[in-house]
Write a structure and sequence with these properties.
CATH architecture of the largest domain: 2-Layer Sandwich
Structural class: alpha+beta
Strand content: 15-25%
Shape: elongated
Strand order of the largest sheet: 8-9-7-10-11
Number of domains: 2
Helix content: 40-55%
Largest sheet: 5 strands, mixed
Radius of gyration: 40 Å
CATH class of the largest domain: Alpha Beta
CATH topology of the largest domain: Alpha-Beta Plaits
Number of helices: 9
């Protein structure tokens, strides 16, 4: 399945649907809270008119306590005249300024009504209880997890069905090798009358990496190196190509597996590490100079030595060798860079104790060479 389609399905199921659900349910809760707050404010206005007409302070106190129990959404209220201290203020420790500041907060609404004798009733109500918002948040999280689980099942089932269909198609196309051959053979010439039956079947790759070594396929190295050289030249960046080799005459296949895994973990980009030969690896390092690459290879060989030699009780460096070359500001192709790295690797094996050799191009001589070719 195309990556864009997978991303679109993920965004729809796991982001848009939970957010849309939460938005709709919260909007409904806000609408209900607004209606409740307005009804509570109307009751408060009626109660305020009755209290202002009453002369019994104790009755006022009892009526307000009962009212607040019945209308828990009202956080604060005040009964006052313009430019005068409030007659009734709740909470008692607050002020008109603090009530105004409270009304600016999230999830609150301010209701204001003018009554007789110039009095003003103001109330601040909570639209949606915090516990309900928290509950809706957890429900949205549960919906997200459900959609994510459905998404995982979908991307697991769809490729499985697709692979099964491909396997069925291949099974139909492949002839039964146990059946009698359809072509008759001329005994005098020893040649088959059906030459197509003897053509070898082409192996189809299904992964980017070799399943045995975990490295990129060797045949992909040159095309990828050409692309990376062009990219480095267009941005005027450096590029280093390294051939790392392990002497398989002295080590087991398990040691080469350890060697490959260590190289993959040491360098950042797995898709820049290729199988080169049966005993060597090709590594492309973009935007790095030769000096930095030398230091990294020195650290790498120490790491490889500690992993391979730890069970062999040997105190010397592992028989691994590194040859490298860099673009060095030149315009060249992959074949030239590989040839230079191979020459450096051969030099490292000849010197043996060096282990790491770098081919350092002379940019000035290269410019002179290009100039002479242009003049000619």
């Amino acid at each position: 399945m195309d990556k864009k389609i997978v991303s679109a399905i993920f965004i729809l199921l796991c982001i848009i649907i939970p957010m849309l659900w939460f938005t709709i349910t919260y909007a409904q809760a806000v609408s209900n809270g607004t209606s409740t707050a307005q009804n509570g404010h109307k009751r408060l206005t009626t109660l305020a008119q009755a209290i202002l007409a009453s002369s019994n302070p104790q009755a006022q106190q009892n009526q307000f306590e009962l009212f607040l129990k019945q209308e828990p959404q009202i956080r604060a209220f005040a009964i006052h005249k313009n430019s005068e201290p409030p007659v009734i203020l709740y909470p008692a420790t607050s002020s008109l300024a603090s009530l105004l500041a409270e009304s600016q907060k999230f999830n609150t609404i301010l209701n204001r009504t003018e009554i007789s004798n110039g009095y003003i009733v103001e109330s601040i109500s909570e639209l949606v209880p915090i516990e309900r918002i928290r509950k809706q948040g957890f429900q949205a999280l549960g919906l997200f997890l459900s959609m994510f689980f459905i998404f995982l099942i979908g991307i697991a089932i769809f490729p499985a069905k697709k692979n099964q269909n491909q396997a069925d198609t291949i099974a139909i196309q492949v002839p039964d090798i146990t059946a009698e051959p359809a072509a008759t053979q001329d005994m005098s010439t020893g040649c088959s009358e059906n030459p197509q039956a003897e053509k070898p079947k082409k192996q189809i790759r299904t992964t980017l990496f070799d399943p045995v070594t975990g490295l990129c396929w060797a045949e992909d190295l040159i095309p990828r190196l050409d692309e990376e050289i062009k990219r480095a030249a267009s941005f005027e960046n450096e590029l280093v190509f390294i051939i790392a080799s392990l002497d398989m005459k002295l080590y087991e296949p398990e040691d080469f597996t350890t060697f490959c895994e260590t190289v993959q973990k040491f360098f950042s980009f797995r898709d820049m590490i290729f199988q080169y030969n049966d005993d060597s690896i090709g590594i492309i390092l973009q935007n790095m100079d030769i000096e930095h690459a030398l230091r990294m290879c020195d650290e790498l060989i120490k790491k490889v030595t500690s992993l391979i030699q730890q069970n062999k009780k040997e105190m010397h460096y592992v028989e691994a060798f590194f040859g490298m070359s860099s673009r060095g500001g030149r315009i060249l192709d992959s074949q030239r860079l590989i040839h230079e790295a191979e020459a450096a690797l051969l030099k490292a094996k000849e010197e043996h104790d060096t282990h790491i050799v770098a081919f350092k191009p002379d940019l000035e001589k290269y410019k002179q060479y290009i100039s002479s070719r242009l003049d000619a």
